[in-house]
Every structure is written in structure tokens, then in C-alpha cells.
């Protein structure tokens, strides 16, 4: 049961009073109806106080009735789904909705932080900048935490978001942004012409102001006409009507972003369904029919709950059958404001007066008219009780009312027309900015968004602009019959703020910016609109000043003695309305943050207790733990010893494989690699070093020549894509005359390293007997296309990363799992082991092979000890620039090995090398360690690193220092080749 | 005959099939692929030789051509992918290479890719959540390269509005399958 009755509920409206929905606000239970927003339901229950202001914690109620709302921000839902800063005006009511007010302590009605309001003289614009200057160290630790606690909006749940979010892509001939009369007319015309149309509206019903006004359209009510139009549009397969969809921004090439709130109106999204979808819309043409937003007038204490936009008051009455109070008044500078009085009177609400700033204001509503009058103050602690009026003759009087509708005119919604740096232009007739050159190809504007405020002109311009846009695309859109509609001219006298009184008149209620703040900014020389915004915070935060910016501009213009267009507007930037971070992230979260790549042995590895490591997107087996092994080092040492002692097998599919063919393939490789490749014999493999154009080492690997005109290049795992991209650049841009074709075959082949003294014996059981793989028949660095296991096509390479007798064998990936198992089975007699990347890494360090740590983007061939590989007999990429003086200093860094003097000490990667007895600083730095491991073969920690003039310093004892951990270790400079420096094993 | 048992890209011995109302997503491992790239100055020779093999001319930009067992689809300037049933054309690359000789470069691509077919009236609703291809505008035989789940994929329209193939990198078959099925559950 609800605690309150809906005492402010009127009759009519687009709500289903046959059904009730229960909801709670600050723990108190209420009831509303389907069709209500949280704001309308709260007003129906006579709740005007909905929040506390940002800085001064002043009591606030709703100002608007849509996404422009600055005040009524609540925390919606509870637990992990709690979402702060939700506008009560756009939150659709559902059964069980929970909402809490925010930025108050301990309660909304009694907020201790409201003490700030008493000190408002100190808390003016620029307060932080002036006050928290000293001491500087206090800012981060003291001032900022206190300010953040006191000021601010809602709070986060700090739990993982349980909801799912989708992203998607849509395409259309015409995107219509806004489903009011202009948008509907546009959609009807374009839809009937057969164009692909998307009609998007942020509201949950289409119709825009047709839902909020009482004017007839085509002899029907606004909602009835809208319903008929929507029925027609919904039936068109070429028209996609997207309610609850806010277009957020206009980007290049006709691309728009939009967020569709699929499940926000439900307590919990259905299983597997997204809460929201972030759409990217590719439009050929776009028509902005985003309407207009009414602007308030600033006057003293104009922020009390109950004071709202006149258009909002009218919308609440007409659409939601709600009045904010039984007795209301209207304050306006234009004829449109009077409509509010007319409509509320028709609903039986007492309208005490229409206060019109214009001396010649027409009498439109059947109530008291105070022409030439102004509201100069208001009263009521937690909600409006009365307003104080200064009448045309200067006399003052008080009018009792619980709500005041304020209208200062309307601002066309130019937001979307400015995202591509279009600047709006001033229109004197409506005293507002209208879209200028939007700077956005393919975009046009219709209806109130371009300042055509009557329903008739909205319909007409919507229809016309749609036809014009389609005409551009070669689509003929015949004229459609438009319904009769009101065509009231705008009658307005600009009036921005009431000058009477010394109290605070609020411009930006969300950021607590007053008229005085703008004056202060001007006085302190923050006069550019962008400075004004930053200094005062006018127009910041969730509403981006939709109701406040114009007031600030008008006051700045007055103070500066300029016109409003001379002052100009701040930049409008996407998104149009706030978007949850979850929506931006979509489904890319947790383990689905990025796709993974699985190796052909993944299944085997999973079954055999592998620990995986991510290398790029690949999941590689890092080691295979056996029962009883308690530490990864134990496992890795075992794997290394098994390989060096007998044989092991490791999945090396992840290394990039690029098929290079063409009559110029060999010449192409000669350009790409620093060392010579043109004369590599068919059936042979060669190690190649690739340089960047600037002479720095880019990547390395082996390349096999399978035929005169076919090579297979191997790249490092991490660089596979970069190298492929580089090769395409070289092929297409540097040497377009060469006959070369490239394609990646990385994952087409499952490739395994079979390494160790027994590797040949093992492979002889796998490779079909007609292929001789004896040392003589298949010598070191040989390659051949063979068959295995009774006829399966395969490739065999005799190459070694471990320094052992080793091969790499490749079969089509689908057979990779079976081959891995077959090798393990055939190798049982040799105690074959699967080994992972860690053992692979240990063995390559023991062998002194460079890897990613050494090819780190700063090192040259010379540094890597491969300076002589850069052939001077030919031209290759990077060869010339590798000769730069600075890269060839006599004491250039050289790759050498290191081992601790004291065997118990550890060599750590990243540590820096110092000559004994010199200070440990950058000036005396001699080099650094790039790779380190425990070598089970040497029973010692070992490392590879770059040392100045390293080749001539073998035997020197140095200090390896790691300032980060405070470690200082004596290390001896040794050859990088710890194991089998002569290479006898791999040639065995 | 060798005795190595193949696995599908999703790591099973049988192809995965997922059914939704108005959509079936099938893993299709039974197709062989070979890339074909004309050598410089040999474009016409390639076209002629390929036509002799395929029984149809090589397709133009963004198009496919099908004849008998073979489908060819365009992948880049003077580059195509040839597709044929795996059972009868396991060594497709060899077959194509012997047809085109030194006029073109041919590379086995069969296991570089995984293929998922989307069949049913709800194809578009799922694909629009995954890639920026305008699938509703695609006609039978059109092909495009698109990014799906961060991965470069080929998208082929086999039957307008009813049947699409997503051909993506094989090592990420699990991620592609996850993306397809989650999007299907979300959209349908």
C-alpha cells in the first residue's frame, strides 16, 4: 500500500489509471500509473522536493519535464543496479521502482550541508581557485576530499554492473532526429517515398510536444494524430521507429551515435537482453527535428520546489494529468506562457495570476493578468508558498501559489547542428539562436529546431526538408497531405532576468550559478563565454546548460555592452545526454574484453594441466604442471632438462607465418631483410633480421624457401601483424613494380617445435619413411614439404631456438591436435615432454638468442651483435640509416651475457649495470639487463643485456643495481651463449 | 591414408549448431579454401586459367561467383579466395595451382579460417549488433570485409535476407562463436 494518495492527479492524460504501479522515494511508498515518469508520479503525490543543489544544498524540485532537467536528479534502483544522477523526468515508472534523493545528509528535508547556503557570500564563482591556494600540498590530501564529499551528486554502488550492453550498426537514407510534428511529417513523407528511414526519439512515446499540448491537429488530439501516424510508420518495412533512443552526436561522414534504452523501463532486463544499445548510425542524410527547449527567467529565489518551466507545467497537466500544486501562477514574457494558464484552468486547477513582463500583454487566459509586472521574490522553505510581485506601477503584492510556471521564450535545440563546429546564428524574431551553417554535410534542420515554432510550420518544414534531402539522393518523394494545425505566431519581448533585489537569482540550478556569479566573472575579467563557463561552472554537468546557458550569455552581453550573438555560445559537444560507461563498454568486459586466439594444442594443453599466458591475443601454454610439482620453477626446470636431455615438444603456431610468392619474391626479401636472401637455395631456411627505415631492428625470424618463387617467412608472435602490415606497405608503396604476392598463413598451419637430442628419432616415427631426415639427408636449416602419419601433407624445418637438435613440423591446423597427441605417443620411449613458453624462454636465454625483450624498438643490429649481418652489397630498408654516426659509437651497447659472481644471487631483468666504484646514477650507467632466468643447465641465475662496448669487457665484474628494489648484485660479463656456444648440438 | 583425426575450429569432432527462433548458426568446417593472386602482368592468364578450372569467371569487386563445387570471392585487387567442399577438394591449393601455373600465386588457406553460417529471417538483427556491414542492402553473392568482435572477417551473402557466411580467423573461432550466439540471444 502506498502511504500517500495522488492528491495532485488531474483527469485525462496519457496514463493508464486503470493500473497502479508502486514505487518508493527515499524509502517512502507511493503509487503512480503506467505512462508516468518518476517526476510526474512524485508531483501527483504532492512531492515537490526532489533533490538538493550541488553546492549550497538548497531544496530543489523539477524545473522541466524532459532530458533538459537540471534539478530532479535521483539515485535509481538499489544494490549493484543503483545508478546516480538519473533524471526523474525521464525515468519511466515501473512497478517496484526505488529512487533516492542524493547529495543530502541526513535527509532530504533536513540537510545538514545546507549550512553552505548561509556562507554563500564566500562560496561564489572562483571560490575554490581563490581559497584553496595554500599550502599547495593540502589540495590533494585535504581540500579536495572535503570538497568532493560536500559537493557532488549521486554515489556509485561500487559493485560490478550486472547488466549487459550491446553495440550495433544501422544504415539509412534518412535519419530523422526527433519524433515531434516535424519528425513525424518528415518520416511520413520519406517513408511513403520508399526511402530507408530511421526515426529516433529520446522519449518513450513519439509526438514530442503533441503529447503536451491541447491543440487539435487534423481535427484530432495531438496524441490521437500521433498514434495514427505511428501506426502507418510502424507498418512500413523501410521505416525503423526507435523510441527511447537519444541521438548523442554527429560525427564525420554522416555517422551519428545513439543510445537506445531497451530495458531501463523494466525493473530488470530480461535474461540475455541488453539494458541499452549504443548504435552507430550510417546515414546518407540526416534531418534534425529536435524541437526547442523553453528557457526560464532569473529572479530572486527562483529555485524553490514548485517553480518550473511553464511548458513543463503544461506537459505535466496535459500528458501526465498532474499539477504540481492545486494553486498555480504563471510568469512569462511571451504569449506561449499564457497557454499554461489556459490549459491548467481547463483542467480545473486554480490559476491565481499570469504575470507578464510586457506592459501590453494580451489577455489570453481567463484569470487575473498582471501586465508589466515581475516576480521579485518567493517564499516557502521546502516548496513554493507564494511569490512577491512588483506591479507595473511599482507597487508590490504577494500572490499565493504552490507552483509557478516560468517562460522566457524558447531556444531551438541547435546542439546536434554544432557538433561539427557549426555555429548557430541569432534570430531576433524569437530572440534565440537558430542553426547556422551546420558544417555537417548531409544535415538539415526542420521545425522548432530551426525556430519554426508553430505546429503547422513544423509539419510543413519537416515534410519539405525530408523531400529535399531525398531529392539529393535521387529519390523522388511526392508531396503528402498535411493536417490542419495551429499556426500561432511568436509574440515575445526578450526578458532575461529581474533586476530587482539583492538576493540570489539562479541561472544554472544544477551548478548553483547565479546572476551575481556571472557579474563577478565579468568583473574579474573572465568574459569570453568559454572562460565564463569554466570560472562559474555555468552549463556544465549532466544537463550541459540546456536551460541555463542563454541566461548567462544574455547577462554577459549586457555587462559587456555587446549583443548576445557577439558574445556567442560555448561549443556544443557530444553526447547530447549522459551515457552510462557500461554502454560505452558494450560487451567488451571481463574475459570478453578482447577476442582470444587458441593454439591447435589448446585442448591437449588444457587436459594436461597447462598454465596459460596471454601473448597478444594468443593463449599459450606457459608450462605443464605435473602431479606433485609445487612451484612453477620446478616444472620449468624439469621441462628444460627434459628437452636438453632427450626431447620435448612446444606449440609454436603463434609465430607469424607469411607466404611470399612471385617472380620477385627473393628480391623483395632482399629489400626487407638486412641480410642477403636472394641466393638462399630452395629447401633452405635462413635467419633474417629486419630493420625499420630508421635503422633500428624491427623483427627477426627464419624464412624458408619452398620454391624458386615461394618463401614462408616466420615473424615473432607479437609482431606478426605489424610485420605483415609493413610488408604490404613495402609491396604496395615502396616497390609496386615488383611481382610479389603476400598472404598470412599463421593459423592455417599447426606448427610444433620438436627439440632435444632425441628429436630426430622421434620424428622419424612420424615422418613418412620416404623422406630422409637424417643429418645428411636433412641438414641444419633445411626445409621440405613432406607427408606424415601415412600421407598427410606437412612441412618440416630444421631450425632451433633452444640450441638443441630441433625441428619444426607443421600440418594443416585441423590435424594439429591429433599430431600433437601422436608425437607425445611416439615419444613415450624417449620420455618426451610438452614444454611451454617459460622453458622456451629459459633455453633461448641460455643459447643467447635475442627475442622481444632485446628487439625493443631502441636497439640496432650492431647492439644485437649482428652488425655484420647488415649487408653492404645490397640496398635494404634501414641499411643506410643504420650507418648513422650516433648508432655506431665505439662504446655502443652490445648484447652480452651476465652471471652472478655469487651463485646464490639473482640477475634481474630491468636492472642497470654500473662499473664498480662509480656512483649509481644515470650519468655512469653502463647498460641494462633485458632478459633473465634461472638456468637449470648452469644451475645459476643468468641474464642477457646490453652493455657499452660489451664485446670487449668479458670477464669484468660489474654492479647490477635495481634502485626500485634496492638490489645490488655483483655480476660477471660473459658471452651471451651460455650453452653450446659452438652450435655443435643443433648440427648433430 | 593417414590416421589423424581432424578437429573443428571450435575444438570438437562434430560441427556446432545453435538454433534460435528464426535463426540457425552453424559451424561449417567442411570447406577448403585457397587464395589466388594474379602475378604482375599475368592478370589475363589468371582470369582465363581460373575460368577454365572454376567454370565461371572470377568475380568483380565485392562479389562472388559460384559454379558447381567452386565458389570464388573477391578479396582485393587481383586477389580471390576459392572455396570448395573439403571432402572432395582437400588439396584445393594444389588443384588451383596446377590450373593457373605460374600465372598466379596460390596459397592454402583452408585452416586459416573458420566459417559460421547464419540462416534464417533474423540474420540481419544479429549481424547489425556485430558488424558495420549493411547486410540488409546486400544481395545474393555480395561479399565484404568487415570487423566483427574486433576481428577482420569476410561476410558473404549466400541468399538475400536469409543466409550469410562469416569467415573469420580460425584461432579465434571461440570468440566469434561467443559473439554470434550472445548477439543472437540478445537480438532475438
Task: Estimate the mean pLDDT confidence of chain B.
Answer: 97
Q: Which pair of chains forms the biggest interface, and how many residues does each contribute?
A: A-B, 64 and 54 residues
| Oligomer status | heterodimer
In total, the number of strands of chain B is 11
From the alpha carbons, calculate the radius of gyration of chain A and give it in angstroms: 38 Å
| Helicity level of chain A | 10-25%
> What's the count of strands of chain A?
48
Can you give the mean pLDDT of chain A? 95
Terminal Cα span of chain B: 45 Å
> Biggest sheet of chain B: strands side by side, in what order?
1-2-8-11-10-9
Low-confidence blocks of residues of chain A: none
Residues in helix, % of chain B = 10-25%
Biggest pleated-sheet summary of chain B: 6 strands, antiparallel
CATH architecture of the domain at 165-292 and 412-472 in chain A: 3-Layer(bba) Sandwich
Which band does the percent of strand residues of chain B land in?
A: 35-45%
Shape of chain A: elongated
- The class by helix and strand makeup of chain B works out as alpha+beta
SSE diagram, text form:
The complex is a heterodimer of chains A (988) and B (188).
Chain A: E1 21-25, E2 28-32, H1 38-44, E3 51-52, E4 59-60, E5 73-76, E6 83-87, E7 97-101, H2 115-118, H3 127-131, H4 138-150, E8 165-177, H5 181-192, E9 197-200, H6 222-234, E10 239-242, E11 245-250, E12 255-261, E13 276-288, E14 292-294, E15 307-309, H7 310-320, E16 327-332, H8 335-346, E17 350-356, E18 369-371, E19 374-379, E20 386-390, E21 396-400, E22 403-407, E23 410-412, E24 425-427, E25 432-434, E26 443-445, H9 455-472, E27 506-508, E28 513-514, H10 515-523, H11 529-536, H12 549-560, H13 564-567, H14 581-585, E29 597-598, H15 602-607, E30 610-615, E31 618-624, H16 632-645, E32 648-651, E33 656-661, H17 665-672, E34 685-691, E35 697-707, E36 710-715, H18 720-734, E37 741-744, E38 749-755, H19 759-764, E39 783-788, E40 792-797, E41 806-812, H20 816-826, E42 833-834, H21 837-847, E43 893-900, E44 912-915, E45 925-935, E46 940-948, E47 957-962, E48 967-974
Parallel strand pairs in A: 1-7, 8-9, 8-13, 9-10, 13-26, 15-22, 16-17, 16-22, 17-18, 29-31, 32-42
Antiparallel strand pairs in A: 1-2, 3-4, 5-6, 5-7, 11-12, 12-13, 14-23, 19-20, 20-21, 24-25, 27-28, 30-31, 32-38, 33-36, 33-37, 34-35, 35-36, 38-41, 39-40, 40-41, 43-46, 43-48, 44-45, 44-47, 45-46, 47-48
Helix pairs in contact in A: 5-6, 5-9, 7-8, 10-11, 10-12, 16-21
Chain B: E1 17-20, E2 23-27, E3 31-38, H1 43-54, E4 64-67, E5 70-76, E6 79-85, H2 92-100, E7 104-108, E8 113-119, H3 123-127, E9 143-148, E10 151-159, E11 163-169, H4 173-187
Antiparallel strand pairs in B: 1-2, 2-8, 3-6, 3-7, 4-5, 5-6, 8-11, 9-10, 10-11
